[in-house]
């Protein structure tokens, strides 16, 4: 996590509203966010492991965080993050990622949908959460995510995800689910190029592409 003025994680989350009663909050919100982001980058995947990471790295964290009452408990992390506005948090995080991401000419941005492990709730009759993500291959960072109810809804989720991204000079790759005229036009309008997978179920288009490659080869 960079600490300089323009790329600081703290700076980009400084405007995020703290939903707690300020007179009762023992831990600074920005401290908790910085800890959580650092822990997840290092492989933590739940509140217990995030709190464990913070305790193990407390001396390092105190170099740039205040931690007036020490390390928050895992219950405190879970409770505070459950109160935050998800969209506002995402906007702050995405703005920070865009500052630390290096500008690489013709970088590949891979868009794909995956179901999140252990996100289902069989007792409540809920299936796993399906996310469509944009992965910057050279920078090795997720640039944005959009949740969908099922894989079949990726066609509507992909345009929403593309709206969040700066695509100028990038090459966007999407599987056959995203092989749609409007999606291709949206990428071009944003200044990017695209590589879209094509299946035989799009008969006319598949034949035209095959003929184009035959002509080009000749």
Describe how the helices and strands are arranged.
Layout (H helix, E strand, L loop, with lengths): L8 H5 L15 H13 L5 H10 L1 H4 L12 H10 L2 H15 L7 E8 L14 E7 L4 E8 L5 H10 L7 E4 L6 H9 L3 E4 L6 H15 L1
Helix pairs in contact: 2-3, 3-5
Number of strands: 5
Strand and helix order: HHHHHHEEEHEHEH
Roughly what percent helix?
A: 40-55%
Global geometry: elongated
CATH class of the largest domain: Alpha Beta
The CATH superfamily title of the largest domain: Ribonuclease H-like superfamily/Ribonuclease H
Strand order of the largest sheet: 3-2-1-4-5
CATH architecture of the largest domain: 2-Layer Sandwich
> Which structural class do the helices and strands define?
alpha/beta
Please report which band the strand proportion falls in: under 5%, 5-15%, 15-25%, 25-35%, 35-45% or over 45%: 5-15%
Low-confidence stretches: none
Count of discrete alpha- or pi-helical segments spanning 4 or more residues: 9
Mean pLDDT value: 86
Provide the CATH topology of the largest domain. Nucleotidyltransferase, domain 5
Kindly give the count of domains.
2
Provide a descriptive summary of the structure in words:
This protein has 218 residues and is an alpha/beta fold. The chain has 2 domains: 9-100, no CATH class; 108-217, Nucleotidyltransferase, domain 5. Helix content is 42%, strand content 14%. It contains 9 helices and 5 strands. It has helices at 9-13, 29-41, 47-56, 58-61, 74-83, 86-100, 154-163, 181-189, 203-217, and strands at 108-115, 130-136, 141-148, 171-174, 193-196. The protein has a 5-stranded mixed sheet with strand order 3-2-1-4-5. Helix 8 (181-189) links the parallel strand 4 and strand 5. Helix 2 packs across helix 3 and helix 3 (47-56) packs across helix 5. The termini are far apart. The mean pLDDT is 86.
